[in-house]
């Protein structure tokens, strides 16, 4: 049996030292690789999660913008509907006012309500008797003369008219019977007082037009007098139910 020499022992020691060094180096390299891989995985995971979260926020933002757009359109439609309703309501109020005024004017025209106001009074009297006249009708007031005055007053804007205090309405009839005139069957002798409620100056100017009603009545030997600006009252023909 050989006894180990000094050199063999020295080589054996070196082998053990190198083995330990390589083992430590291997362990360090393995640990470094493992740590590097873990860092790469961690970075990969962190970056992917951030991207996904950012993408989710972007989708939510786009969705919210679309919803805001829909809400704006809906709000505009609601505002348009409100404006249309307000306009229709205003138009309805205007129409109601117009209808009320028309109804009021119609009641006045039909004599269903009493009226009062300033206006014009026109008095028609028979002309002075002329013994040389062959026909006495040449100087008395006829229903045609009364109609002329009434029509002119209505054309000039008269709101209501009466003859000798009797209210005239849309269906009134005036008939001349000798020296008297019957208004809706009620007879009145001359003079005939025709009263009209309206703008006094307008009514008077219309009657006094050159070649107008006054000139025609004077040519027919009718005596005409006018008083404007009087307060005229007229009762209703019928009471409202």
TrEMBL record:
Pfam hit, one: DUF881
Keyword hit for Transmembrane helix: yes
Coiled coil region boundaries: 54-95
Residue ranges of the TM segments: 12-33
Keywords: Coiled coil, Membrane, Transmembrane, Transmembrane helix
Top-level taxon: Bacteria
Protein name per its UniProtKB record: DUF881 domain-containing protein
Taxonomic classification: Bacteria, Bacillati, Bacillota, Bacilli, Bacillales
């Amino acid at each position: 049996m050989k006894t180990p020499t000094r050199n063999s022992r020295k080589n054996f020691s070196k082998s053990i030292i190198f083995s330990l060094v390589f083992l430590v180096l291997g362990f360090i390299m393995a640990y470094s690789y493992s740590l590097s891989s873990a860092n790469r995985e961690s970075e990969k995971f962190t970056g992917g999660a951030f991207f996904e979260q950012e993408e989710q926020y972007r989708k939510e933002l786009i969705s919210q913008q679309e919803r805001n757009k829909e809400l704006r359109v809906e709000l505009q439609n609601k505002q348009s509907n409100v404006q249309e309703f307000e306009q229709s309501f205003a138009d309805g109020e205007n129409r109601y006012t117009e209808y009320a005024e028309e109804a009021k004017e119609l009641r006045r025209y039909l004599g269903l309500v009493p009226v009062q106001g300033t206006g014009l009074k026109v008095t028609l009297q028979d002309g002075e008797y002329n013994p040389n006249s062959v026909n006495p009708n040449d100087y008395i007031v006829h229903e045609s003369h009364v109609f002329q005055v009434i029509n002119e007053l209505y054309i000039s804007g008269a709101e209501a008219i009466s003859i000798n205090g009797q209210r005239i309405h849309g269906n009134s009839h005036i008939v001349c019977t000798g020296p008297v005139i019957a208004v809706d069957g009620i007879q009145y002798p001359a003079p005939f007082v025709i009263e009209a409620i309206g703008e006094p100056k307008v009514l008077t100017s219309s009657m006094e037009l050159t070649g107008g009603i006054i000139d025609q009545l004077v040519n027919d030997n009718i005596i005409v007098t006018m008083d404007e600006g009087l307060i005229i009252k007229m009762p209703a023909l019928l009471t409202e139910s």
